Amino acid sequence: MTVLTTQATGSDVRVRFCPSPTGTPHVGLVRTALFNWAFARHHGGAFVFRIEDTDAERDSEESYHQLLEALRWLGLDWDEGPEIGGPYAPYRQSERSELYQDIIATLLEAGHLYESFVTNEEMIARNESLGRDSKQGYDNHERDLTDAKRQAFRDEGRVPALRLRVPELDRGFDDLVRGEVLFPATSTTDFVLVRAGGKPLYTFVNPVDDALMGITHVLRGEDLLSSTPRQIALYTALVDIGVASHIPRFGHLPFVMGEGNKKLSKRDPEANLFHHRDRGFIKEGLLNYLSLLGWSLAPDRDVFSIEEMVKAFDISTVNPNPARFDLKKAESINGDHIRLLSPEDFLGRCLPYLREAGLVEETLTEREQGILHDILPHVHQRVGLLGEVAPMVAFLFTADTDLVIAQDAASTLNDSASAVLDATLEALGGLDSWQIESLEETLRETLVEKMGISPRHAFGPLRVAISGRRVSPPLFESMQVLGRESSMARLAQLRSSL
Hints:
Oligomer: single chain
CATH architecture of the largest domain: Alpha-Beta Complex
Radius of gyration: 32 Å
Distance between the termini: 88 Å
Number of strands: 11
Structural class: mainly alpha
Number of helices: 20
CATH superfamily of the largest domain: Glutamyl-tRNA Synthetase, Domain 3
Low-confidence stretches: none
Strand order of the largest sheet: 3-4-7
Largest sheet: 3 strands, antiparallel
């Protein structure tokens, strides 16, 4: 039987993202969601979100809701799936068991499935008795069991599993990422689709759901490449019984590697999507970086919008080689996107972090509004993560006497710090205007020109005194926002401690 592979290329494209709710969403999983979503949006097709939640021991409602939260935060909207429904509902695998049982019965009646009673121990013993490697696995020897033999097994109390009768032929397909892939006939023997007792395995329900939902393209991780011949074999059977109309096209995405060129594990902090969000990644920056894990817009351009990605996305240009998650590059790209935010948007995205740090009220006071209005434009261009903002501006919301000098900042103070602070206090004592320009002009003349101290050593102690930090918003801007009284008090406070 000749089974056609899908010819969908436009609005008839249907892709799916079907994670299992087992733990916190990780960046490799989100990269897969992003590529599927971008593929669907590029072609004007449908992005189907489906939950593979039949593993009662590992699945959790918490993880399920985290998956929803992750996609919503990133703006990866779905056309069909949980909470919005669709023509192929339900979209949670745990709610589709009746559908599976009907298809199992049809496949069994059509001869595509057969009963298998062999145990693992018997399989090993059989291989050894035939002079084969004990780990070779199943050799299809139960395909033609007689009714009498099957009944004899039942009489022993055995409950059969159901195996797919796999035609003995080579299987090749044109992988959308890797090109032509060929699996010899010997690589795929009859495999179990339904456990003893009647519960279908993932290897059954996943392709069946794809068939029932009309999925045309399956974009998934490289680790699933070896299972593709099995899926194609099952699809062929599903077409034969009228459940599927075509075989989808497959594209296997490259591994995402972590430190030491090891596959990024779920246990790695860098793998945790919400860890990155909590640190202050914005969705634009993270999506941009994740898209670079196997794909690029142009050889000389790393920063682009999600709209630009969708317009240009071509699955055939995905690099099949493993991609390494480079945290420093991710932060750099995130910083580029932060700088593209409008001042109002930047303020709005900073507020949750400022509230979490206890710096501002739920509703900003007039004083808080004034401080943020004055200082955030100077912070906006300096941070790579939103989480860096609160520590950087905390000194403006701290009482003078409560300011703590960070250890790394204190270590920068050299022998000239006392003289610098003395000269600064004297020079600023009679200053009429407490504005950026006059502050800078006065202190450069006093410390750099007259005392001959380098700007680094001249202004470093002042930065430490004002902010308590080695790195802060621009010094003179900070002093203007802080005001004359607090600035002078902090300068004197540090001087008295030396």
